[in-house]
Amino acid sequence: MRNLKIRNLGPIGEADIQFGDLTILIGPQASGKTIALETMKLALDYKSIIDVLNKNNYRTGKVENILNLYYGAGMSTMWQDDTTIEVDNTPFTKAFLDPSVDKVGAIETVFYIPAQRVTSIIDKAGLSFRLYNDKDTPFVNRIFGDTIQRFIQNGIGQQTVLFPMKTRLKGLVRQRFDNSIYHGARVELDEESQDYRLILKVGESKLPTMVWSSGQREFTPLLLGVYCLTGPPQNVLRSRYYKYVVIEEPEMGLHPSAIQDVLLQILELMQGEKGSKGPKHGYKVIISTHSPLFLDFAWAFNKIKGIHDEQVKYRALHRLMGTEGNQPIANMLEGVLDKDVRTYYIGKRDQQGLSYTKDITSLDVWSDDPIIGEWGGMTSFATRATDVLSSNVLNYD
C-alpha cells in the first residue's frame, strides 16, 4: 500500500495520504486521525477482521453489523452513499464486507496499537477478544488486547519477567527504557495470581497497575506490542505476515527523553532484523501524535538525509539519537537514511467543516501556509510567545 484516499467518511471530508516508511499523522482532537487509520486497516485486513468476528460468533450477516463491530456501536452511519475509499487507486466498497465474499486467505497485515491500549493491562496482561464490551469497544482495541494475551500465554514460555527481557530489545534500547521509564523496577507476571496480572516489582514491593506512574501504565502495553513484532519468530502471532505497524499517540504519559527512546525503537521496527533472529523485513510504521518531538525528528531526519557525505550524515544521525559509539545500534541504523519519512496534517477547514489532509513533509518554517510553517499548530504558541516577547517585553526593557 502506497496511498489511501477517503471521501465523506464521518468527520473526514477528504483525505489523501501517500505513505512513507514512517508516516506521521498530526491534527487536533476529533479531526479523524483514528478513523483514517482504522479505515486503512479495514481496507487491508477485512478478510481477517471478518474471520475473527465469525470465529467469535458475532453476527456478520449484514454489512452494518460489521461496521458497528469494527468502528464501535452506532458508527456504521458514518459510511454514507457518497463515501468513497481507495487504496492505491483501487476502490474499497461495502461489497467487500458482504458475507458472500470469499474470505479464504484471511491474513492480518496491519499490527495496530491503539491509543486506549492501557485498558488491555489494567485488569491483566491482555483480554480475550470476546470479553471486551461488545457494543462500544472498537475492533482494533479488542484485537490488540487479544494479541497481547496470546503472546503472554503462549509466546514467552515460562518467563514471568516481562521487563527487562533480553530476547526482545536491543541492549541500549532496553537500558534507555529502564533509565527513562522503569528506573530499575521490573514488570512481572504476578506468580500468586491465576490470570496473568501484571505487577511492578520495586525492591520487595509488588505494585498493581493502578498505582504505577501514568507513563509506566501507558508505555507497558506499547512495549508488549513491540515484543510481538521483534525477537525470535513465533507461530502464535505469525508476525512475519505483518507489513504495517500503526501506533496511536506513542508519547502518552512520557517525558521527552522517554519519547526519544521510543523513536529509537520505531527506527528499529522500520529496519527489521539483519541477523538470524526475528522478521528479516522492516515494517512501514504509521503514527498519530500530539507531540512536537516527532516533528522535530522528521524535520532533522530529512535535513540530515540531504548531507552528501555518508559518514558525516550518519554521525549527525547518531548525535541526534544519542547513540554515538554503540556498534550494535550503528549496525541496526545502517541504511535507515534511505527511508522515506512523511508528515501529514488532518484538520477542519473551518469550525463547521469536515476534515481534510495536507502533506506538510517539508516542515518549512518559512512557508506562507501557516499549516506548514507552524507544523499543523504544533509551534503556533511558541511562535506567538516569541512575537509577544520581542514586541513588548524586550522593547520595554
Spatial strand arrangement across the major sheet: 5-4-1-2-14-13-3-12-11-6
Task: Tell me, rounded to a whole number, the average pLDDT.
Answer: 90
Q: Segments where pLDDT lies below 50 for 5+ residues?
A: 275-279
Estimated helix fraction? 25-40%
Principal-axes shape call: globular
Largest sheet: 10 strands, mixed
First-residue to last-residue Cα separation:
56 Å
Total tally of structural domains: 1
% residues in beta strands? 15-25%
Helix/strand-derived category reads alpha/beta
Number of strands: 14
SS summary, helix count = 11
Rg over alpha carbons = 22 Å
SSE order:
EEEHHEEEHEHEEEHEHEHHHEEHH
Can you offer a commentary on this structure?
The protein has 397 residues and is α/β, with parallel strands linked by helices. The chain has one domain. The protein has eleven helices and 14 strands. The chain is globular. The N and C termini lie far apart (56 Å).
Structure keywords:
10-stranded mixed beta sheet; 11 helices; single chain; alpha/beta; 4-stranded antiparallel beta sheet; 397 residues; globular
Structure summary:
It contains 11 helices and 14 strands.
